[in-house]
Amino acid sequence: MMAGMDVDFDLLADFLAVAQEGTTIAAARARHVSQPALSARIVRLEKAVGAALFERGANGMRLTAAGQRFEPFARQALTALERGAAAARDGEVLRVGVVDDELAVVQHVLARLPPPVQVQRAGERELRAKLQSGELDVVVADLGPGPGRVAMEQEEVGLAVPEGHRLADGESVDLSETSHEVHYLPRQDFAPSWVALVRRLFDEAGIDPKTYAVQSDSSLNPLRWVAAGECLAVSLISTPTPPGVVMVPIRTTLHYEWSAYGEPDNPRATAALQRLA
Fold it and tell me: Residue ranges of the HTH lysR-type domain (predicted)?
């Protein structure tokens, strides 16, 4: 239980399950509990937090603005508990920095590293600075040239569109078809390499679209705005999509270059990079 709040980690797992599944019925099935019990626990969590976390509707449950702000902290709390338990059992921790630990490629990389692993999420510039200062052992991202870089794989990019959008049923999409639509872009200072790639895609397609007014450091919030029909979002093809979003591959020769980085004089980093090479 969290000090000062009547919240345990099971409540956070329930909350994340509902956010992922979109209904309490599906979330209860995933959590192996009854639907009434899970609904009661969500109400308990909302009372403890002091805010409504979900909008209830005939078609399911959608995160409120408060729920969207709460979600990354709930996810980080559960991750920290899991990593802490591993550290307590197994000893010295390998500190890994990522921009987003929810992507399939990142999950695959983390599974290949020797436990225990402590994951830190941060923007690209902060990750590079922490790697140089020794606060991180390994960074998994696309930071361009860097120390001890191990190129791992190229990932296809896609366009996240709302269900029912005119492009949702296509096998692929040319971004030139979206020149009059609003596109989401993250903060330049948080993900400069990603923003540069998206800008290159826009240039390749010959478009300069309007950009969405709100920004987030999470990959999930923009997709919820896509589901609401407020914007489109260029995304990595492995990005988990919430209900109401379709990921359509973009016709392009450009890719995201997944790499791992570590300082050559760091033995833990060297051993980890050898596993990923």
Answer: 7-64
HSE-CB at 81 with a 13 A cutoff on CA atoms is 12
User: In the numeric block, which tokens belong to residue 71?
Assistant: 């979600």
* Whether residue 115 has a cis bond before it, omega within 30° of 0: no
Q: In whole angstroms, how far apart are CA 208 and each of 178, 201, 211?
A: 10, 10, 9
Q: Are 247 and 235 in contact (CB under 8 A)?
A: yes
Residues 18/39, Cβ–Cβ less than 8 Å = no
Confidence band for 145, pLDDT divided at 50, 70 and 90: confident
Which domains does the chain show, CATH number per domain? 9-71 (1.10.10.10), 92-153+257-276 (3.40.190.10), 157-254 (3.40.190.10)
Q: Is pTM, for the whole model, over 0.90?
A: no
Give the separation between CA 58 and CA 56, rounded to whole angstroms: 7
Token couple for 105: 């490629």
